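Subject: Predicted fold for Peptidase M24 domain-containing protein, 374 residues

User T.R. writes:
Posting the sequence so we have a shared reference for the thread.
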Amino acid sequence: MTTQFTADVTAYKASATTRTAPGNVADRAVKRQRALDILDASGRDSLLLTSNTALTWYLDGSRVHISLAGDPIAALLVDRSGDHLVTFNNEAGRMAAEELPDGVNLHTVPWHGQLHAAAADLAVDGHPLVEAAVTTELRAARQQLLPAEAARYAELSADAAAAMTDVLTAATPETTEFELVSQLAAKIVAVGAEPLVLLCNGASRSEFRHPLATHSPIGRRAMAVVCARRNGLVANLTRWVAFDAGTPQELDAEARIAAVEADIFRATVPGARLNEVFTGIKQAYARHGFGEDQWTLHHQGGPAGYAGRDPRVTAEVTDTIVLNQPFTWNPSGPGVKIEDTVLLTDSGLRVLTTDHRWPGTQVDGRRRPLTLRP
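User M.O. replies:
I've generated the structure tokens; pasting them so everyone works from the same file.
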């Protein structure tokens, strides 16, 4: 059983000089209502949030991790009386000072205690609704970004794009893949974000679409991928650098994969279902000369936001697209891939991961990235 955290939360917050909880009061009120709507539809009185995706969304950007590969160090019970965050006793001071939004009650368990059980015990009947029972409903609640989080997402995306430009502009054929991703990691961390994914394949490894870095020099041509998280939101982008003019085959494939992406962008409209977009993706590959089975060789992306993909789109995902929903589509073919984080607005798709220094070209009326040739 948890005990109420007895430290003076107000004093903790007053003493914090390096960071304040990012939660926006107006946005958090909307998110709480969305959670209460889930309870109403389920006929239940409490909801237990335990995943990093759900927690960072509901708390509007709080950091609830220590290890990027570990489970969250907090669990949160949403009930009709309020919000109750449970964390370990050795995490409570930092959480209170730097991560706890106003209006959230803080509880602790010993560092060796059981977070989920302790949070569940706070429910009136001890049996709250769990995430697994309302996966689709929670995903729908996250779909539409609110004003403050949309602004944070745009800032993160621009920072990630700038980091990519800085690093690839300075690269040479002798730069190793590990050197390149380590420089990207340093740039991402320097802007207060966490590099969740860092990929690179040089010319000798261009056939790999999820290429973890090696000590190989990148050579004449390379791809770099960054997925960066800040305040819970994840920005994703892919860029290419080359040190020659490129072969006719490479240039043709780059143009064709951009055309596939343009078809996907045109299909990403309010009211469309994701499985319908997925069907269109498969058709786009065939239409632009990549073959009917190209979609089977790599995932195609999907909605973004508080997860790298929320979710990856398949024929079984029937979610309906809504306004102010973010996406990262990533069509790819042999030796080519294109990827940016975008937001669906009332004036169309807005590309968030942009840097004016990066070379681009117009594709279907939208500026899209070219291969950088320093």
